[in-house]
From TrEMBL:
Secretion signal span: 1-29
Highest taxon listed in the record's lineage: Bacteria
UniProt keywords, alphabetically: Signal, Sugar transport, Transport
PROSITE patterns cross-referenced by the UniProt entry: PROKAR_LIPOPROTEIN
Protein name as catalogued: ABC transporter substrate-binding protein
Similarity section: Belongs to the bacterial solute-binding protein 1 family.
Organism this protein belongs to: Actinomadura livida
Amino acid sequence: MRRIPPNGGTPLAGIVACAALALSLTACGGDDDGGSQGGGTAGLEGRGPITFVTGKDRSGNLQKQVDAWNSDHPQEQVRVIELPDEPNDQRQQMIQNATTKSDAYSVLNLDVVWTAEFAANRWLVELPMASLSGGSGGSSPQAEKGKIDLSAMLPATVKTGQYRGRLYAVPSTSDAGMLYYREDLLEKAGIAEPPKTYQEMWDACDKVQKLPEGEDADCYFTEVNKTESMTISAVEAITAAGGSIIGPDGKPALNTPQARQGLEFLVDAKKTRMPKEAVTLDTEGGRRYFQSGKLVFQRQWPYQYALANEDDGSSEVAGKFAVAPLPGPDGPGVANLGGHNLAISAFAANKATSLDFINYLTGADAQRANLLATSQAPTIAALYDDPEMVKKFPYLPVLKKAIETAEPRPVAVKYGDVTAAIQGEMYDAVTGKKPAEQALNDLQAKLGPLTAQ
């Protein structure tokens, strides 16, 4: 999930009201019919021009793939509609389109954490899903006509497109946070391996910053601005400490020592280890900061790998960095599960074309090309073990393990309100407006009604 600038963030692993398997299937509003056109998979009809609504495509690869589709489908042309970088803004524009029942948007590129909200509100069409056993082996996401075969995809990604056991979105890209680090500076400081704990990371920073090459570099950065990225940072920090924002029972779980330890890590890191402008840096701002050579360590999504290695002069760190699993308090940390899924608007015309286009973009060939062009994480499992891909992207084994063990953000039908509450309280804590304990208590109180069954 890289979270997104191109086309990042997230995760249906059953931890919040209405989305978790442990909760009652009748807890949320609506009935079992699914999509707003009467439910089920009926209504996937109509052929002709469609739109594809997504975040910004900085690589140019998406447009290349769309151009190839358009060349082969002169009567079913796709027009790309690019939304702003910030996921909150993307979500709001998609919701505005849905609430007006506009047919302007056909295929939606959704952050994985939006599935429950969009499906529960009947803004998406349910998609026909083939059995997950005995699939295509990665050659195509469609094993039989009219049904989407997900068996070649990583199981963690498949869950993100489901709501109440039904499929509403097809995994297109996945994501999990990784630790980018200046391998050249660590070597010069006599450090042979990347840190596995926070303390090892701080100790490495202290050594690097004593070098002439590292004296002007900041130690660490993870996003702590008041956006969706704050929710991601909070999930990773609190989970790494052994806590959770939402417990297994679907209720807020912020009144714990583990939650406090996780938040205090962010507070202390912001105060003593991050750039002064940390609260103003978004995902792209963090990427540019790292590429300028001003950071020793950075928590970031896979999409940055290709951009930071560009040899066109845009990156001061090309060939000088590596990636590793995120560190934690006492050992390896926990990454947040991000990524994007493709869904069909319930109000779109030409839904049959939309489904075919989704199959095209999520197929193994398209995902391979996208990985090569953007370094975004694929959802096809075999690509992580492809020797050619691993040679070009050495981080793939690390990323695959991170995705398989990643922690999702809270998944809720009222996700917008849930993430806004998390962002606000976490921001107040890291900027010193509230003590960590008070911020957690206030968040506990806010999340109670929002996650009530």
